[in-house]
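Molybdopterin-dependent oxidoreductase
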Amino acid sequence: MSDRKNVTAWLREHPPPGPFRPGFWRSPLRGPWLTSVFGLVLLFGIPIIAITGLVSYAAYDPHLPINDTTPEKGWLGFYLFDWPTHPAWLYRVTQGVHVVLGLALTSVLLAKLWSVIPKLFTWPPARSPAEAVERASLLLLVGGAVFEFATGILNIQLFYVFPFSFYPAHLYGAWIFLAAFVVHVAFKLPKMVRSLRSRSFLRELRTRLDATQPEPPDPDGLVPPSPAEPTMSRRGLLAFVGGASLITLGLSAGQTLDGPLRRTALLAPHGRDYGPGPNDFQVNKSATAMGVRLADTGPAWRLELAGPHPVRLSRAELLAMPLHTYALPIACVEGWSTEQLWTGVRLADLARLAGMAPGTAEVLVVSLQRGGSFRRASLSTGQVADPRSLLALRVNGTDLSLDHGYPARIIVPNAPGVHNTKWVRRLSFHPSAK
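Tokens:
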């Protein structure tokens, strides 16, 4: 025991150079109160992001064939449920909140990490087995938060630079982060409450730079032993972080709200014009990017209906069938959404034409596209049976453009954008597995 104490004492007296030395971190603003303010914001925001993110995964109906991008999820899929088609705007709201709130809280997360960074460089790293466990949980918490926010932001911006599949990595990373987050909150919540009560928030907002003083010394070592002179007040730091969050919110929410505000989404890849006319709305992947050629969509194109009575239909034959028009949104995992007026043939009518009894059919949709991860998608019985679910041929009164899925695309209320398959070439109807 004495040998271990001697080793610990020697290590404490001989820290490595740089951030491991106590005098390295000298900001007079750091302390338990400031950390707790940022922590309180994240305490309310992160559960909302987590819940909407898990709901987004459920919206993919991963129990259906083809749709499951995480086949080894096991018990992590305990919460999954049949995704509804009502209300049509539900996925638009949940995924929009997930993305926009995540972007807005990025500055708060970075500020929280800045406020506790001395703790990450404590030397020696662990003085007891219990402290080693706490440090390991902190590593999972910080690493999980950085991984989830970084991969999410890259995915929103369509920067697919991952050496792994985004969907399973983001899902598994979320569960690891949430487990560490729950443990962290359980241990730190009483301390956070005490820290918040130690100072008046309103008084701090009235405190100018010349009156800014360090917080009292704390056992966690967040307050520096020899603080430097302040160059910013705490209210200035809070205003900077809060202002960054509001600006991020204002420059990204437009892609979810759509309409005239789409042009304000300067931080999102879809806040721009796509040319004049009825097809001026977001395009996630162009026909060229997906390997769809004009020859594939020309007069020789036929829609294949697979089922008890296989059928092949030209676009002219589809246009001669009963057509229906609905205003329905498309919402994508990247957070953008738009509502347009779609005209086409009901999937339920096509299922009956292929020999399926009403309300019994699931369908596997196959696209002409040659690239991308969603060349095929499964739709549930409820999605096929919904009268608003269409094989769309027109949008806003005119033919679909090639980038929007000409000659035909799927439109299903409340489905994730990638399941509204473009450039459809085959619908394979089959009885529900349930």
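The beta strands are 303-306, 311-313, 324-331, 337-346, 361-367, 376-379, 390-395, 398-399, 409-411, 424-431.
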